[in-house]
């Protein structure tokens, strides 16, 4: 395996990919939906639209007057530094945990980019059924959610079992 792919750099590259896909899809959503109608993907369930979130998850503190931009930005930055160090310290053979952390890191930095550049986060994926609407979200939010779910699965089902390794020390 090339040295690059056997180091923590591979996980940082995954985080970078999440950031790039997140930013690209947000640019697309702004161009397509900011002033236009929503696009029904699965009528009655899923559509692409455009929304601006000035708060945190589920618009928490969205109407707090502007200080939350810097507060949530600082939290994302500190958290990202912690995750970068966490990934760096993991054994090279681990795959599940650093992949989960890379998804969370990429998502956090994707939304950090919006928050610092624009003062809000651009969202465009809307899931709904009848009059029930889940808060509009984006690719960064999906990456964070999937990464968090992976960490929970790791903790619940694999943490106590220890690492399963082969003769060469690689995870099997």
UniProtKB/TrEMBL annotation:
The chain crosses the membrane at residues 70-87, 99-116, 136-158. It is found in: Cell membrane. Its EC number is 3.4.23.36. Belongs to the peptidase A8 family. HAMAP family: LspA (MF_00161). GO terms for biological process: proteolysis. Pfam families: Peptidase_A8. One of its GO terms (molecular function) is aspartic-type endopeptidase activity. It catalyses: Release of signal peptides from bacterial membrane prolipoproteins. Hydrolyzes -Xaa-Yaa-Zaa-|-(S,diacylglyceryl)Cys-, in which Xaa is hydrophobic (preferably Leu), and Yaa (Ala or Ser) and Zaa (Gly or Ala) have small, neutral side chains. This protein specifically catalyzes the removal of signal peptides from prolipoproteins. It is a multi-pass membrane protein. The active site is at residues 123, 141. Keywords: Aspartyl protease, Cell membrane, Hydrolase, Membrane, Protease, Transmembrane, Transmembrane helix. InterPro entries: Peptidase_A8. The gene is lspA. Its main location: membrane. This is Lipoprotein signal peptidase. Pathway: Protein modification; lipoprotein biosynthesis (signal peptide cleavage). GO terms for cellular component: plasma membrane.
